[in-house]
Amino acid sequence: MEEYKYSEKEIQNEKHLSVLNVPVEIPVSEIENQLNAKIRGLIYEDNSYEDEDNDNLKAKVWKISPIKVVAIDSSFLLEVPLKIWVSAGYKVSPLGVTMSGYKDTEFSIRIRLISKIGITPTWQIKSETYVDSYDWISEPNIRVAGLSIPIKGMVSRLLNKNFDKITEAIDEQVALNLELKKNAELAWNIARQPVMLAKEYDTWLVIVPTSVVMTPLLAKNNILRSVIGIKGYTQTITSAVKPVVPPLQKLPNLQIVDKVSEDFKIGLISLVSYEDAARLAAAKFAGEKFPFLGGKYHVEITSVEMYGQNDRLVIKAGLKGSINGDIYLKGTPYYNPDTQQLSLKGLDYDLDTKNSIIKTAGWLLQGQFSRMMEKRMVFPVGDQIAEAKKTIQKALSNYKVTEGVIVKGNLSDILPDKVYLTPKHLYSVVFASGKVNLKVEGLKGI
């Protein structure tokens, strides 16, 4: 009795978990340019003598030349030259005469900052900046009545108290200008677009993304690098029209991982109709007589029919000779990667056939007839799979999805999956595994 678990359409809906790699490259020079564009001129000012426990100081801080940025691993080293104006209250008593008032001075320092870079699950770039050290380019100096008033200590205390305002400004600009989420959403939704793999076969690659992972941002050769991994299910679909893409999806929260897998799989499908398989099998047995018990008995195969029964292939073979009639055998089809052929294993007589043979032709069971048929029931599908792989590899070599978005991939190993029996065909599904990258120009800069 014919019975099938799968339809033709269900084979194409078989989904295989894969990872699409999206390299991220952010030149440190771009970060430096953005920081210098946003942080310029006046950075901080204190316009009161009474604040900070009546510190008797006013101050203004300017950036006087470009910030220099060096990236090491996941940290930025920033060098920021600053000009500082201070108005300080004084009270001196030279020669017993008390004098008080306010005096202004200007000086410059070079401050060195360390900024640790991280990413939150909601795709926000987060930096934690602190002062590593600073040195004086020019020192503060106030003179009253020919006397030099030592305010360097006071200014140092002022700086130490207010460095956090400078570091907060740096962190704010890093968060504003290192925008990953928008570009990651772009990659996420581009990944969902069907890719035409083989026009002559109307074959499409469809990815249904499910989650996103990312390696930490690390700097090397003055480029901040990471890899975003879009995990999802790949489908190989045959369709004369472009498959329908589901509505836009919200970008899921990010998972930070040490390494993004490069495991990408594309299902390659080869098919053989039952009629073609039966015809090929019948041709192999045409005119051949099979002897049993030293030639006492013999049979000849006159016809072959095939159909499916769930996961097993049923072979109906017509015999003539010492026994006339039809016998039924069942076996499990599989793809043999060594021979690149569709083969059978466990081929044996159907139970009803076996019971009938025992009663009328027990000798047929003694000659290993079923094992002989199993060895001969092989069907070449390797050319189909090799051609499909070749066509897909060509498409993935440099596929332009849209302006600034390129799919590049390399397929290597062929891994057998399963043979599916449908009402019309034997489907051999194998995986072409390899690595596929989605190059998005927007992710190469800030």
Largest β sheet strand count, sense and barrel closure: 6 strands, mixed
Estimated structural class = alpha+beta
Q: What gross morphology would you assign?
A: rod-shaped
Instruction: List segments where confidence is low: pLDDT < 50 over at least 5 consecutive residues.
Output: none
Radius of gyration, in Å, reads 38 Å
Percentage of helical residues? 10-25%
Percentage beta strand: over 45%
The protein's oligomeric status is single chain
Distance between the termini: 64 Å
Count every helix, treating DSSP H or I runs of 4 or more residues as helices: 10
Number of DSSP strand runs:
24
- The pLDDT mean sits at 81
3D structure, described in words:
This protein is α+β, with helices and mostly antiparallel strands and 446 residues long. The protein has a domain at 28-177. 24% of the residues lie in helices and 50% in strands. It has 10 helices and 24 strands. Strands 1, 10, 11, 12, 13 and 14 form a 6-stranded mixed β-sheet that branches. Strands 2, 3, 4, 5, 6 and 7 form a 6-stranded antiparallel β-sheet that branches. It has a 6-stranded antiparallel β-sheet with strand order 16-17-18-19-20-21. Strand 19 (325-336) and strand 20 form a beta hairpin. Helix 2 (28-38) packs across helix 4. The longest helix has 26 residues, at 152-177. The radius of gyration is 38 Å and the shape is rod-shaped. The two termini are 64 Å apart. The mean pLDDT is 81.
